[in-house]
Amino acid sequence: MDLGVKSKLAVITGGSVGIGLAVAEGFAAEGANVLITARGSERLHAEASRIGAKYRVEAHGVAADVATAEGCAKVVTAAAQLGGADILVNNAGTGSNETIAEADDAKWQYYWDLHVMAAVRLGRGLVPQMKARGGGAILHNASICAVQPLWYEPIYNTTKAALMMFSKTLANEVVGDNIRVNTVNPGLVRTPDWVKTAKQLAGEDGFEAHLQSVADEAGGMKRFATPEEMANFFVFLCSEKASYSTGSTYFVDGGWLKTV
Ligand code: NDP
Ligand code: SOE
């Protein structure tokens, strides 16, 4: 099936590893050009070069901290220099670990900037480019935690819930511009970060059992998704094959969500 994204420019934040990298590869495999961002430039540029060579598309790395206004502006400028974005995947993000009683304002602010303001600023900056190109697609990577909170990360739960509502609101604002906006709420995705944390908690011999215990506790399929399973869904939602989908949130969680 041709997804109709050939030669489009897809901007993916947090595209140097994990889900974002798989999404970038998914787009490139469909013939889209990609602009990936992350703070760490070495890994970012190595992956951009690899993707460009492997899929014979244009693949650019822009080192930027999207938790800052300057970082977002840098991404917007880079996309403009490439002719403008058709697709934006707001993916950069990370888990937290705190209690509400103990976390200070600075921590709340950081996650607000990373999970919400990045989407606000990049949306504000890239929507005009999409309009000029006749339309586009924006996808927000929130989390199942946006509606089914984990006890140890109240800041993550709260900011991801805000991102979900931002996505819905933006969808309403740009629906007349042929720009579709959606959210995906992933469940457990086996990224290098999960493996690293599991090794820290359970050691080299025990980490697989630890990851399995996390999946068992989630229930449903009782396994982690691969980043590629997530990417297939992301790329489809940003493609012309999903042309009637906007303003929605899709759970891709192997059955972990406990409600309808
Ligand atoms: P990873 O930690 O594997 O990758 C995160 C990516 O984001 C990296 O490229 C990182 O690069 C980049 N990044 C982090 N902070 C910033 C920043 N301030 N500015 C720019 N880039 C940044 O994450 P995952 O692939 O696991 O997760 C991706 C998204 O999916 C996140 O939003 C997460 O909340 C969500 N998610 C993940 C789940 C999972 O099980 N893995 C489940 C549900 C949701 P660098 O550090 O170099 O900046
Ligand atoms: C609009 O030009 C458009 O092609 C959307 O219809 C697609 O869903 C997306 O691929 C990007 O832009």
TrEMBL record:
InterPro entries, A to Z: NAD(P)-bd_dom_sf, Sc_DH/Rdtase_CS, SDR, SDR_fam
Highest taxon above the source species: Bacteria
Pfam family of the protein (one): adh_short_C2
Signal sequence region: none
PROSITE patterns: ADH_SHORT
Biological process terms in GO annotation: monocarboxylic acid metabolic process
PANTHER family reported for this sequence: 3-OXOACYL-(ACYL-CARRIER-PROTEIN) REDUCTASE (PTHR42879)
Family, per entry: Belongs to the short-chain dehydrogenases/reductases (SDR) family.
Protein name: Short-chain dehydrogenase
Lineage: Bacteria, Pseudomonadati, Pseudomonadota, Alphaproteobacteria, Hyphomicrobiales
